[in-house]
Amino acid sequence: MRTIIILSIALVFMMAADAGMAAETQAGKPRILVAYFSWSGNTREIAKIIHQRVGGDLFEIVPATPYPTDYNACLDQSAEELKRQYRPPLKTRVANMKQYDLIFLGYPNWWATIPMPVASFLEEYDFSGKTIVPFCSHGGGRLGQSVSAIAKLCPKATILDPLSIHYGGSQTLQDDITTWLRRIGIKARGKD
Ligand SMILES: Cc1cc2nc3c(=O)[nH]c(=O)nc-3n(C[C@H](O)[C@H](O)[C@H](O)COP(=O)(O)O)c2cc1C
């Protein structure tokens, strides 16, 4: 009988500790994933900076078959994929998406929208109840239709104010990221 009482008390304590942890991660410190696709490296650089500032895990979306390194060949292939709404299979997989609350999602603007590997990524997991924070590297076309494409693929996710970056090794990149993180209410390390 004594053993049963002691075990019951221990169980109640364990459950309370568990509930406390969940409350803290949801209300205080969200669990963060910084996921990105990058063809020529710009988005990768931005993703690394964001990751340094917000912490969490960094994840690269890598297509199973790499895109051609030739610019024009990449333009042609991606245009064709967009037209067909093709979903390229991915080489990399997030081990446990359930553990993340907040997903920073980076990509280059391709044909005024998301590259198709990003669509594959968004369809591969359940983003219901999660928060997605888009950041887009572009050559002048800013976000294009990319955010509405994300919203269409993840109708049950909350999407925060995105960051668009005309990337050319910009001097203001760090400050732009700081201002943006502050605007969307994300606590960041350094440069504040
Ligand atoms: C296939 C392809 C399509 C692109 N389409 C656009 C576009 O529609 N609008 C735009 O502003 N930039 C466009 N760009 C330029 C990229 O968005 C820009 O160079 C970006 O910084 C590349 O990021 P990355 O180095 O991470 O791949 C395109 C580039 C490629 C390769």
Question: What's the helix and strand layout?
Answer:
Elements: H1 2-28, E1 32-36, H2 42-54, E2 57-60, H3 71-84, E3 102-108, H4 116-124, E4 131-138, H5 146-153, E5 158-159, E6 163-166, H6 173-183
Parallel strand pairs: 1-2, 1-3, 3-4, 4-5, 4-6
The protein binds flavin mononucleotide.
The site of flavin mononucleotide (FMN) has 21 residues, from helix 2, helix 3 and strand 4.
Describe this structure in words.
With 192 residues, the protein is α/β, with parallel strands linked by helices. It has two domains: 1-29; 31-183, Rossmann fold (3-Layer(aba) Sandwich). 43% of the residues lie in helices and 16% in strands. The chain has six helices and six strands, in the order αβαβαβαβαββα. It has helices at 2-28, 42-54, 71-84, 116-124, 146-153, 173-183; strands at 32-36, 57-60, 102-108, 131-138, 158-159, 163-166. Strands 1, 2, 3, 4, 5 and 6 form a six-stranded parallel sheet that branches. Strand 4, helix 5 (146-153) and strand 5 form a beta-alpha-beta unit. The longest helix is centred in the first third of the chain and has 27 residues, at 2-28. The N and C termini lie far apart (58 Å). Bound molecules: flavin mononucleotide. Residues 38-43, 74-75, 78, 108-112, 137-141, 144, 167 line the site of flavin mononucleotide.
